[in-house]
Amino acid sequence: MSEQKYLFRLYIVGKTANSQKALANSKRLLEEELPGQHELEVIDVIEHPVWATQDEVIATPTLVRCSPPPVCRVIGDLSHREKVLERMKIRVPSAAH
Amino acid sequence: MKNVLVIDDDEAVRSAFQLALEDTSCVVTAAAGGREGLAKLRENEMDLVFLDLKMPEMDGIATLRRLREWDPKVPVYIVTAFADEFMEPLQQAAEQGFEFELIRKPLEREQIWEVAEAVLGAIHLAGAGGKRG
């Protein structure tokens, strides 16, 4: 069976410090938790506001797990690693001790 | 307690923020325009600001520019519809290095709570009967 590939989208605003922090945190987290199994698209809401609406993003920065289901979202700079993992449902619960 | 400032010319929006955060550890201060909002910011240190983009007299971008002279660090969420027609002034502000985030209009109570919690950390008051616990 082939490994699942996860698709994430990170919605940010320009190159603000908070956006860059969210980008760095999401890259690090995904590379550590899903090495070789993920794709991360970075979208500037100012350039693509309609995409944010279509992905039901209500605020920046937001990380969206687009596939595989379930689709889920977490708002913030993604510095709370455990919270992000829990909300993104990308860690087997029994492994977290 | 966390101090939250809401700057919006629409009384219904100001009330929506106050209602959404009434059973939390947030103290919400409301201002009906940019000048009033800046005055409130000078009176009290704020932990989070929600700032309407489209306001008469002093709009959200003009308010943001003045606000950043006073407080370069407070998180500011500009409240706007996510549509191309509103993005040009935001693009200019971002390119000039102004720090802000965006929150989409219209907003529901739960969404206001969610964003406030994402920025401020846990805001639920024990025994307050909020939706989250």
Give the CA-based shape of chain A.
globular
**What is the oligomer described by this structure?**
heterodimer
Fraction of residues in β-strands of chain A: 15-25%
The coarse silhouette of chain B is: globular
Strand order of the largest sheet of chain B: 2-1-3-4-5
Which structural class is indicated by helix and strand composition of chain B? alpha/beta
Largest interface: A-B, 21 and 24 residues
Largest sheet of chain B: 5 strands, parallel
The count of helical stretches of chain A stands at 3
How large, in whole angstroms, is the Cα Rg of chain B?
Answer: 14 Å
Fraction of residues in helix of chain A: 25-40%
Helical region count of chain B?
5
Order of helices and strands of chain B: EHEHEHEHEH
- Major beta-sheet overview of chain A: 4 strands, mixed
Mean pLDDT of chain A: 90
Features:
heterodimer; A: 97 residues; alpha+beta; B: alpha/beta; five-stranded parallel beta sheet; disordered C terminus
Structure description:
- The complex is a heterodimer of chains A (97) and B (133).
- Chain A has 97 residues and is α+β, with helices and mostly antiparallel strands.
- Chain A is built from three helices and four strands; from the N terminus they run βαβαββα.
- Chain A has a four-stranded mixed β-sheet with strand order 2-1-3-4.
- In chain A, α1 links the parallel β1 (6-12) and β2.
- Chain A is globular.
- Chain B is an alpha/beta fold and 133 residues long.
- In chain B, β4 (76-80), α4 (87-95) and β5 (101-104) form a beta-alpha-beta unit.
- At the A-B interface, α2 of A face α4, β5 and α5 of B.
